[in-house]
C-alpha cells in the first residue's frame, strides 16, 4: 500500500481499504445493526474467526471499521479498535487484559476521570501504583512480578508534564510489561508513536481528532510491538495463528463485544470528517499556543505558566526530542492567588467549558472543577494549586485571544 505524508493520509487513507457503494467518497453511515448472510456458512465462519465479516453492530460496522483503518494507517500501527468514548477505550482495555492479582503502574499526572477509574479498578483486586512518571527511577522501583501495564499520558493536563518515553518503554520491555500511552494531548500531528517504544496507544477521539465538540469517541491502537505470547492472560480461544493479533482479538471480544461501549456509526462518521482537518487546525493551534504562553509568561498578573514551549518547563528538552510541536494545552496560576473564577468571568471571547482540543479556545478553573473530587494530598501530589487556570487553545485569530486575556488579566490585578 502506498504511504503518503500524514496530512494526505488523513484525507485519503480510508480509500486504500474500501470501495464504497456508488462511488461514494465518504464512508457512508452504516446504521444497520444486523448483517445478512445469504449462505449460512458465512456466519459460521465469521463466528469461528475464519472469515472477517460484520455480524452485529456492537462488534463492528463498516463506518467504525473505516475510522479504525484511518487510525491504523496514521499511526503506522498493527490495528485499532474504536470505542464510544476515550474512557470506554481505557476501561475496556483494562477489563479485557487484567485479572485479579495483577499490578499496574500509573502516572500520578493523569486526566482526572482516568485517575478516578484506576481507583475503581483497585476495588477489583488489581493493585495500582501511582507514581511520578517523570522520575524513571521511581517507576522502576514499582515493578513487580505481577506488573502488567505502565500507563502514562504523552503530555499530561493541566500541568503538561512529559515522560521520557524511551526510558519508560525500555523498562517495560525488559519486564514484558505493556507500555501504554494516552496520546489525547499529543495527536499524530505532533507525536509519532512508531518512533518510540510504545506498545499500546489509547486516545480520546473526542478531543483534537474530532476537533469540533460534536462527537464522543475513543480508540486503542496496537503498535504491533508487544510480544503477546509472553502475556499470561490471552485466552486460548484468542491465540490465533498470527500471534501478533492476540491482543487485538482479545480486546475486540472481551473488551468491545462483552463490555459493549461501542462507537456509534454516526459518531464515527463525524470523527472521520473532523480528523481530515486536524493538520490544518493543528498549525493554527500551535501558533496560538506558543504566542499565548510567551505572552502570559511575561505578564505581571501571572505567577507561573506551564507549557512545554517555555525554556523553564521541566521537560522542555524532552518535548524537543519527542514532539514536533509543543501542544495546545497550557495552564497558569494567577499572582497573589487571585480567584480563577473571577478572572474567567472577565473573559469575553474565551469560553468557560470543560473540554480540550476544540476549535474554540476554552478556559477552566482547575481545582474547583475537574479536581474537585480529589483530596488535598492528591492535589498537592499532582501539583495543582487554587488559582490554576487551564486553557485549551483554539483556532481563532491570535490577536483576539491575546486581547481577551489582556482584558481579563487587567481586571484581575
Ligand atoms: C478527555 C480525555 C480522556 C477521556 O476521553 P472521553 O472521550 O472524554 O471519554 C482520556 N484521556 C485524556 C488525556 C483526555 O483528555
From TrEMBL:
The modification N6-(pyridoxal phosphate)lysine is found at residue 207. InterPro entries: Cys/Met-Metab_PyrdxlP-dep_enz (IPR000277), Cys_met_metab_PP (IPR054542), OAc-hSer/O-AcSer_sulfhydrylase (IPR006235), PyrdxlP-dep_Trfase (IPR015424), PyrdxlP-dep_Trfase_major (IPR015421), PyrdxlP-dep_Trfase_small (IPR015422). One of its GO terms (cellular component) is cytoplasm. One of its GO terms (biological process) is L-homocysteine biosynthetic process. Transmembrane segments: none annotated. The keyword Transferase applies. Keywords: Aminotransferase, Pyridoxal phosphate, Transferase. Pfam families: Cys_Met_Meta_PP. Its cofactor is pyridoxal 5'-phosphate. The keyword Transferase applies. One of its GO terms (molecular function) is transaminase activity. Belongs to the trans-sulfuration enzymes family. This is Aminotransferase class I/II-fold pyridoxal phosphate-dependent enzyme. It comes from Opacimonas viscosa.
Amino acid at each position: 500500500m502506498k504511504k503518503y505524508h500524514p496530512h494526505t493520509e488523513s484525507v485519503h487513507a480510508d480509500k486504500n481499504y474500501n470501495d464504497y457503494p456508488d462511488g461514494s467518497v465518504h464512508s457512508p453511515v452504516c446504521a444497520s445493526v444486523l448483517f445478512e448472510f445469504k449462505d449460512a456458512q458465512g456466519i459460521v465462519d465469521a463466528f469461528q474467526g475464519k472469515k472477517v465479516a460484520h455480524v452485529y453492530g456492537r462488534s463492528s460496522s463498516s463506518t467504525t471499521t473505516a475510522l479504525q483503518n484511518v487510525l491504523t494507517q496514521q499511526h503506522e500501527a498493527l490495528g485499532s479498535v474504536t470505542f464510544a468514548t476515550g474512557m470506554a477505550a481505557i476501561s475496556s482495555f483494562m477489563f479485557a487484559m487484567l485479572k485479579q492479582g495483577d499490578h499496574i503502574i500509573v502516572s500520578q499526572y493523569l486526566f482526572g476521570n482516568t485517575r478516578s477509574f484506576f481507583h475503581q479498578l483497585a476495588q477489583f483486586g488489581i493493585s495500582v501504583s501511582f507514581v511520578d512518571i517523570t522520575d524513571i527511577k521511581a517507576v522502576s522501583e514499582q515493578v513487580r512480578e505481577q506488573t502488567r501495564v505502565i500507563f502514562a499520558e504523552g503530555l499530561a493536563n493541566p500541568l503538561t508534564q512529559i515522560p521520557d518515553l524511551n526510558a519508560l518503554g525500555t523498562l517495560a520491555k525488559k519486564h514484558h510489561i505493556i507500555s501504554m500511552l494516552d496520546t489525547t494531548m499529543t495527536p499524530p500531528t505532533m507525536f509519532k508513536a512508531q518512533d518510540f517504544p510504545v506498545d499500546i496507544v489509547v486516545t480520546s477521539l473526542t478531543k483534537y481528532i474530532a476537533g469540533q465538540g460534536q462527537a464522543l469517541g475513543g480508540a486503542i491502537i496496537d503498535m504491533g510491538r508487544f510480544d503477546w505470547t509472553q502475556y499470561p492472560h490471552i485466552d486460548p480461544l484468542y491465540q490465533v495463528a498470527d500471534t501478533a493479533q492476540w491482543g487485538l482479538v482479545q480486546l475486540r471480544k472481551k473488551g468491545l463485544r462483552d463490555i459493549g461501549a461501542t462507537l456509534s456509526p454516526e459518531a464515527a462518521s463525524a470523527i472521520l470528517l473532523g480528523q481530515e482537518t486536524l493538520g490544518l487546525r493543528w498549525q493554527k493551534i500551535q501558533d496560538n499556543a506558543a504566542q499565548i504562553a510567551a505572552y502570559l509568561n511575561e505578564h505581571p498578573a501571572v505567577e507561573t505558566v506551564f507549557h512545554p514551549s517555555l525554556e523553564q518547563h521541566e521537560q522542555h528538552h524532552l518535548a524537543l526530542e519527542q514532539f514536533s510541536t509543543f501542544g495546545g494545552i497550557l495552564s497558569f496560576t494567577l499572582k497573589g492567588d487571585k480567584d480563577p473564577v473571577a478572572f474567567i468571568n472577565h473573559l469575553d471571547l474565551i469560553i468557560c467549558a470543560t473540554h480540550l482540543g476544540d476549535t474554540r479556545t476554552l478556559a477552566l478553573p482547575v481545582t474547583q472543577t475537574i479536581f474537585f473530587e480529589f483530596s488535598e494530598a492528591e492535589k498537592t501530589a499532582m501539583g495543582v494549586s487554587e488559582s490554576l487556570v487551564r486553557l485549551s487553545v483554539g483556532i481563532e485569530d491570535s490577536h483576539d485571544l491575546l486581547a481577551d486575556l489582556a482584558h481579563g488579566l487587567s481586571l484581575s490585578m
